[in-house]
Design brief:
heterotrimer, B: two-stranded antiparallel ribbon, C: 0% strand, globular
Chain lengths: 255, 243, 498
Amino acid sequence: MDSANDNPLKRFSTFWVGLVLFAAFGLAGLVLGIGFNKPVKNGYDEVNSERRETIREEVDKTHAGARDMADKSFERVGAVYLESAPVAVEKPEFILPGSATQLGKASGGTGVKVPAGFPEVAADAPIDPAVMAKGQALYAVCSACHGPNGEGMYHINKTGPPLADSEWVVGPVANLIAIQFRGLNGTIEVNGKSYTPVAPMAPLPLDDESVAAVLTYIRNSFGNKASPVTAEQVKAMEGEKGKPMLSPADLIPPK
Amino acid sequence: MTFKAFMSALAVSFAVPWFLIIVVPYAKMRDLEPVHFEQDSDGRDEVYVPRRSGRISTGSAVYGANGCYVCHTQMIRKGFAGSELGRPDWAGFRVQDESGVSINTSRETTPYDFVGEEFAHVGIMRVGPDLSNVAGRVQKYLDHPLTKADSPEGWLYLHLYNSALKTVTLNNKFGCPRQTHLFKEQPRVGQGSPNAVPGLENDGMEVLPTGNAKALVSYLLSLKKDDAVPYSINYSRDKKKAE
Amino acid sequence: MVTDTDSDTALQKDLELRARIDRSLRHPVMFFFTSGAAWLAVAVLLGFISSFKSHDSTFLANLGFLNYGRVYPAHLTVLIYGWGCQAAFGLIIWLMARLSRKECTSVGVILTAGHLWNFGVSVGVLGILAGYGSGRPWMEFPAAVWPLLLVSYFFITIWSFIQFRCSEGGKTYVAQWYLVAALFWFPWIYLSAHLFVFVFNGHPVMAAGVNAWFKYALIFLFFTPVALGTAYYLAPKVTGRPVYSYTLALFGFWALAVIGPWAGMQKLAGGPLPQFLPYLGAAATVLILIPALAVGVNILLTLRGHEAEVTASPSLRFTIGGIVSFVILGVMGLGLNTPASLKMTQFSLAGYGFEVLAIYGFFSMCAFGGIYFIVPRITRREWLSRRFISWHFWLSLYGIGTVVVCSILGGLFQGAAQEAYNAAWSDAATRNYAYNVGTTVAWGLIIFSSLFFLLHLLLMWARLGRRSQHPTLLKGDHHEDSPHGPDGDLDELQTAEA
């Protein structure tokens, strides 16, 4: 039973089988590890430059969009700005050239001016019934805001203040003519009450006789009694035509 | 059982754990992806880049060859496995951040803390303190009124040459053994060499650190592992996010 | 052997075969035992020096090459590769040859490879002391050494594998399972661990993890099976009765095979790697208690009722010491690796104590048992002094006991102090002074025991042993009517008979 009787082939094969078995897990490690020996890459630089690229793209997009928005918004802002009504200025240096205020001031202010040689009509001058009738017919238009009986539509839709018992109506004629030519906008106090119509009174393009007729009518209706208005008076005030819209501060104060 | 059956059973009983605890974790940890800070949990949006400066590769080899890992560890364990997170100046320091708030920079060791080294010198025993943040501690020791060194390198050279010389020794009785083989003595000529370690001159001899000592000290001064890490790998996350 | 009846021709042939096997094995096995014993003396001396330095840093402080950081790795690597592996090789070669009933025909190759192994270990330990260590625990030899050791290993042990495969007896003994398993486990562990740690480019933490796994894999899957194989050979052989339970032996072996490879990574608990790895390692180390108990019960019950042999036979005494140490190792594995205690032992002296218990307390005691049995058979001389053997035994036992108490328990206390993070570090650092001194005392005891052993073995190697057929026993005097026949030199008696 000594080794001389061994099959030499068995010894030889066992030698190599043994070698392979000994190295089994080392070989397995090498086989799995052949992929191990690639140099470990430094991932940080790549990742950082990728992130820089992404951030840069986003920033560029935002910038371009912002420029777009800025352009568009300028148009919108500018348009809104131009549409908005100017605030009443107090200091002369704030008045913009070409603006209504400046024009009014250049032409001597926006106030109602009684021109020199304004014909006076006596308070008890006779009233022509034809003129009254014409005036009444014309008043139909005015009644939309001032009421069919001059009571004003203010309490219904905040449009016109009353003409009845109005100190302005029986007051200086120049006011009324100027209003007809230039319109009126703003808060006005009539008979102790304050009225702010939602819409200004627009000037009406009537001829002198018609203006005189309707003004005579309102001055002698609704409980008012005052001197009639003549066409000559209206003609004398034609300098007011084209001037900017009136505000109640521009009117000659009624006594 | 036959020999084949025996060998198969032996191979399988070895292969399964070998594969599961050696091969797969090794392969997966090879290619760690960079971690990102996130906007909502960290307050910034960038990649966490672990940075270490110093002669890390050579110094790490000198550290291993001289057996520093026998007495010193370099692993701050997570709270459930050990308590060194709470030990002052081991895992981090009390500093003021940019807004002047006093914060504690302590954190556990992350996988990115050993960048630049081939083998993480986790350590065998803790005869001496853990060295994860030794660079920060040395900086603090320099402020001690009795310190003989004037620079962090000088302090570490004193410690390695004769650890009883530096004044702030926590363990004077059996401190770090004298590593005199890392230095060479030579007679002092004139004003002396600029490389001589200050504080060690006597009898006309001066002590110079060898290349190994310089590498080792450079490596030790790179050991400051308390920088901010992203929430996703910050294991004391609940505390940190609340702060 | 001289027998009265010639009818026992088969028995006579068997005895002659055994004698021939022993004769063929004399040089390789004695080479490994003697050179291993010399390395053991060096290792134990280095262990004493390193332990002394741990509580007194001025001891030999002027010798830079004996720095603590170099002498500690040198001590452990010489203990493992110089003594442990060579003792294992000697045991494997002799046991496998005897159990397979095959003579050794590759004496020249084995001796050459053995000298190469010695050369590798010498270069390695001198490299560590000169400052070229690799810094990886238990793998500190400079990186060029390990392939040399692996190749030497192959040419030492492949012949045992061939003997096993070519054996004509039908039966495979329990000891052979362990020896064959150890033969393969060593290269599997050694080669893959060194590839992953030294060759492949991987993550540094995972390299540390594989290194930690290597440590315990080497303990549980190389030193343990070799020691158990020796114990499973000696216990039935010396008492003359079979192993107590075949099933238990089977269970114990496969339990070790299944549990062992998972252990080791608990060194990195709480660290920056997937946490299932360290906790699997801790669990496996805890479960090693199962095969430890199985083997312990089996062997100790095999010896039950044979107290006389146990008291008298040196081999059995050392074997029992080793097996009991194995059971204690299992209990320590349980005690040191639960989640609560792992915190404390992970970075304390307890790990070192566990390793010393495994290599010296368990493996070395079983190896001594084997050596005391084998050497007379291959040198055809008997041990000279029962006192030397006795002192070797008792000093080793005291040394191991001191290691268990001081290193392992001391490590637990040290770890507990380390965990008290609100106390100053100096508290934890100074806590261990007494236990370090105790460990030094243990190594001192073991130095003396090793010196007795080495001296004794060298005398046997020089063929100065007692020329007698009567084995040197620890008890009892020589009788005329001893079962071993008349006293006297074996060769002279055979010549006289012829």
